[in-house]
């Protein structure tokens, strides 16, 4: 086994456990991603640490449960960077081992110190937390500013047209297109929110003025991020590289490139998943042509579970048909149920990893310690506090993973998975989110499910096994008081 392979993590956005044909989808075909599963490892019990994006991404980067940082909520596009510059991070593990590191795609972990100068050099970018190169958009595709940031500057900005960004409730700019003032500019209607600035015919969250030359086009996001990823790979000829390729699909707004419009029968949501699959195929093909596929470990996963209507009237619900984005799991994005954080996870390393299906219990926050082990990077006490070393499980050399793991819903309610048991702590709030129609799992009662027999979490057995429920509730309390769990 090569001790210093190139490593690529492809990190999808809101892709569910049932959204890929290798996980049982019948109405969406993902042959390129399926290849990773068929020739690598398909994990059936892999989790992110949160049912929403920013907290999950924070854990991937830092090896910490999100509760350790009070700023791990869904961030606006002008938020400060929530990773402390002195924190040990996943890319820093690779840098300490002599790797060249890069991130391309969605960031959504904040920039600067809370007062971002979009027209000059931006402080506290991905380059300050372990990446040698970065090409990102700051927040999400539905949040302003709709621009790329390369390393420390907005890409393609005309100095004569400076960018201004506001997340105030009322628009402070009189001379921009807005959802209320310029409905004739819209090509996609809102179903909830997304009614502030109109950019590229799409309503966004937040207001933005200026920067017209720097605006990206939604249809080009996939290809732009792919091209930048391939450029980073090509510029790393003599050095092993780590690439975090954080694709934006299938997060809203779902605007596929014209080549993929109508590619599936599921509307734009299905089409952007087909587009994502194409991106994966192009990436793998590029590695093959360069002759470095056997020297490259590829991991594929998602930040959290799926959602259909997430604020745009894009017919995701109407055209979904019999497709089950979360597969057999209950809930989805935002939820305490397994559909919120149990995600697709694949590992592919041609010639090294043996094709298999793994039931090992794993958390995305384990990647940092696992790679530290592989590369001989020492982890100091206090660093990567919740990241366990499960390198053998990630590489398919063992079916033994974690004894337990914890994740949280959007509302920060905690869930503990231990073996066959999953415990959902009592929480306030609606049982069903009214806009997304997703079951959130909120209940004043404790919930306990035996996932060995009840993967869909239909039968709450907390009353039948009170000692198990109490022990798991006590363990959550213990974790929340701890400084580390590894």
How is this structure best described in words?
The chain is of the alpha/beta class. Helices cover 19% and strands 16% of the residues. It has eight helices and 20 strands. It has helices at residues 31-38, 53-62, 90-96, 221-234, 267-290, 367-375, 391-394, 466-481, and strands at 6-12, 41-43, 46-47, 100-106, 133-137, 149-150, 153-154, 164-166, 198-199, 202-203, 207-209, 241-246, 296-302, 345-348, 356-358, 362-363, 404-408, 414-418, 421-424, 447-450. A ten-stranded mixed β-sheet has the order 7-6-5-4-12-1-13-14-2-15, sandwiched between helices. The protein has a four-stranded antiparallel β-sheet with strand order 17-18-19-20, with helices on one face. Strand 6 (149-150) and strand 7 form a beta hairpin. Helix 3 packs parallel to helix 6 (367-375) and helix 4 packs parallel to helix 5. The longest helix is centred in the middle third of the chain and has 24 residues, at 267-290. The protein is globular and about 65 Å long. The chain starts with 5 loop residues before the first strand and ends in a 5-residue tail after the last helix.
What gyration radius follows from the Cα positions, in whole Å? 21 Å
First-to-last CA distance: 27 Å
Overall mean pLDDT? 98
* Physical arrangement of strands within the biggest beta sheet: 7-6-5-4-12-1-13-14-2-15
Give the overall shape, derived from the CA principal axes.
globular
Q: Pairing-aware structural class of the strands and helices?
A: alpha/beta
Number of strands: 20
- Helical fraction: 10-25%
Stretches with pLDDT under 50, minimum 5 residues: none
Sequence of secondary-structure elements? EHEEHHEEEEEEEEHEHEEEEHHEEEEH
């Amino acid at each position: 086994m090569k001790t210093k392979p190139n490593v690529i993590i492809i990190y999808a956005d809101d892709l569910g456990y049932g959204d890929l044909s290798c996980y049982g989808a019948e109405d969406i075909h993902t042959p390129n991603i399926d290849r990773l599963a068929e020739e690598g490892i398909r994990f059936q019990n892999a989790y992110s640490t949160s049912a929403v994006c920013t907290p999950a991404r924070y854990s991937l980067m830092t090896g910490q449960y999100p509760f350790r940082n009070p700023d791990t909520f869904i961030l606006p596009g002008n938020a400060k960077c929530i990773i402390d510059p002195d924190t040990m991070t996943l890319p820093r593990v690779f840098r300490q081992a002599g790797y060249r590191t890069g991130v391309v795609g969605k960031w959504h972990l904040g920039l600067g110190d809370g007062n971002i100068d979009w027209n000059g050099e931006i402080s506290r970018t991905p380059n300050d937390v372990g990446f040698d190169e970065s090409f990102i958009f700051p927040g999400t595709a539905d949040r302003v500013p709709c621009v790329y940031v390369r390393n420390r500057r907005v890409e393609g900005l005309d100095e004569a047209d400076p960018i201004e960004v506001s997340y105030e409730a009322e628009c402070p700019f009189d001379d921009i297109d807005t959802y209320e003032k310029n409905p004739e500019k819209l090509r996609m209607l809102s179903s909830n929110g997304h009614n502030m600035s109109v950019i590229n015919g799409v309503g966004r969250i937040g207001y933005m003025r200026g920067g017209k030359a720097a605006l990206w086009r939604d249809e080009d996001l996939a290809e732009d991020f792919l091209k930048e990823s391939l450029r980073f790979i090509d510029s790393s000829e003599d050095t092993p590289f780590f690439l975090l390729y954080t694709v934006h699909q299938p997060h809203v707004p779902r605007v596929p490139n014209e080549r993929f419009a109508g590619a599936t029968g599921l509307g734009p949501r299905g089409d952007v998943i087909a587009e994502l699959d194409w991106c994966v195929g192009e990436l793998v093909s590029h590695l093959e042509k360069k002759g470095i596929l056997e020297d490259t470990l590829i991991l594929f996963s998602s930040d959290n579970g799926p959602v259909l209507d997430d604020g745009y009237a894009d017919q995701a619900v109407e055209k979904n048909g019999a497709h089950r984005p979360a597969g057999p799991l209950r809930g989805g994005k935002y939820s305490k149920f397994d559909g919120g954080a149990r995600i697709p996870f694949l590992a592919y390393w041609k010639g090294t990893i043996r094709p298999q299906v793994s039931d090992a219990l794993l958390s995305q926050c384990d990647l940092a310690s696992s790679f530290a082990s592989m590369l001989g990077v020492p982890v100091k006490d206090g660093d990567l506090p919740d990241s366990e070393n499960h390198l053998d499980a990630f590489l398919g050399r063992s079916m033994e993973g974690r004894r337990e793991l914890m994740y949280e819903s959007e509302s920060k309610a905690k869930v503990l998975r231990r073996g066959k048991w999953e415990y959902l702590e009592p929480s306030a709030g609606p049982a069903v989110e009214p806009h997304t129609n997703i079951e959130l799992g909120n209940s004043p009662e404790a919930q306990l499910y035996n996932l060995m027999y009840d993967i869909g979490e239909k039968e709450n057995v907390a009353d039948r096994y009170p000692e198990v429920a109490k022990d798991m509730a006590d363990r959550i309390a213990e974790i929340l008081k701890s400084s580390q769990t590894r």
